[in-house]
Amino acid sequence: MTIAISLKVNDGVVLAADSAATIFTNPGNNQPVGVINVYQSAEKVFNLCKGKPLGSITWGSGSIGQASISTLMKDFRKEKQAILSKEDFRVEEISIELAKFVYEDNYNPAYKSWPKKSRPRIGFMVSGYSGEDSFAEEWKFDISNGELFGPNKIRGKEQSGVTWNGEPEALHRLILGRSNHLVSVLQDCGVDEILIKEILDKAQEKLTVPFVIAPMPIKDAIDLAEFFVQTTIDFSKFSPGAPTVGGPIDIAAITKHEGFKWISRKHYYNIDVNPIQ
Questions:
Q1: Using 50, 70 and 90 to split pLDDT, how confident is the model at 88?
Q2: Are strands 12-17 and 250-255 parallel, antiparallel or unpaired?
Q3: 146: pLDDT confidence band, cut at 50, 70 and 90?
Q4: How far is 263 from 251, CA to CA, in rounded Å?
Q5: Is position 67 within any domain?
Q6: C-alpha to C-alpha distance for 170 and 179, rounded to whole angstroms
Q7: pTM for this entry
Q8: How many domains does the chain have?
Q9: Domain boundaries, position 143
Q10: Residues 189, 190, 196, 200: what is their CA dihedral angle, to the nearest 10 degrees?
Q11: Following DSSP, what letter does each residue of 118-170 receive, concatenated?
Q12: Is residue 190 part of a domain?
């Protein structure tokens, strides 16, 4: 699994993620899907077009068929260069193109022999600035049980906030002040559904910590996004079960005038013997 953060303030958007990637087996013969391995060097934050204020982040399965998500994103950049390089591109348009590329061109062909409910879950966020707009946008799509949902706009252009995907439990507790399993606990205790909704609404009103505020400087937004990822990594590490969130933290900031900028990024090669050309 993973933790993937998109944190939006007035000055821009910060994308941050861990590096753990879960690789699944082919279920075949209606057998349940299994996990082959969890690797700690996956790429989940992507610069969609060099020099443009546009980026993407992913969570869920670390591959589609035989191809890693990293390779597929590079394929997308190469195939869609004409659209990505347009001066007046729209973030919504790019998110739709990416959803088609992932789902129709790669996901469906790779898993056509798998039962739909056994197909891996995967999601993407596309964030950035459309044309000369003053505020960033975030568009999200998910593939669950073999079906595509989205892309959907996360929040209004002038709204700020944080969206987390992947393994949500740590941040549900930290930000919302309650476990993701509270509903099932209340149901087990025989609490009426209407009362459960009232409890959840009141808990959100009273317990949510407003970490993100619109005028927050981009540097503080970067630090906050890193804190959210590191907290989830530590929560996974010390919780029972396999640590499916971990590895180095990759962070990028997208602002109107500076575009996409890497803040921290792992390298599998030695920079000393791979000088910038």
A1: confident
A2: antiparallel
A3: very high
A4: 5
A5: yes
A6: 8
A7: 0.90
A8: 1
A9: 3-176+211-269
A10: 0
A11: GSPPEEEEEEE--TT-SS-EEEEEEEETTEEEEEEE-S-TT--EEEEEES-HH
A12: no
